[in-house]
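Problem 12. The chain below contains 173 residues. Write out its predicted structure in token notation.
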Amino acid sequence: IINDRKREDEEIVKLYEVQKKFDSLSVEIVKPGRRILSEKTLKEVKGMKIKDVLYFFFTDAIIRAKKGSLLSEAFLVCKTNIPGDQLHCIDVADSPLLLPNLIQLSHATGSKKYFVHAESRDEKDLLLKEMRNIMSQKMIDACQEIEEKNKLLSPTTILMPANRSIRPTGSSS
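Solution.
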């Protein structure tokens, strides 16, 4: 229990360190249950241009950021915050007309699409795995929340009086 508490405290400190990098108005980094998985500079492809964009991978979201400046102090501005339950990532098939190893990232609304270029197929596979884990974790969290709410209304809770218990078949009193 002590090690778990220490690990949770370390995770919160990491989130506050990331939060300090951002313009305070652009995004809320510190949230209950959130952990940072990685911070990466990825190559985004738009038309014929390739630019480096900073990405933060959290357990529940991906945040795109750009560098800004305020009174000569460097800070980051959140450009896109895609919650895990609204994240779509597509493995773009290699084609002679496109750069190889592209991944399309988008918000579920489809309002914005970003194409990220990986240096190799292995890097692409790793990025896809990380993105899909973020998506999966958000869905798992939502399912667990629903399960917790449903425990209050389970058939056992409704049908059995509070002072009775269910015994396995074949057990004796």
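Discussion. The first strand starts at residue 36 and ends at 46. Students who got a different answer should revisit the alignment rule from Section 12.3.
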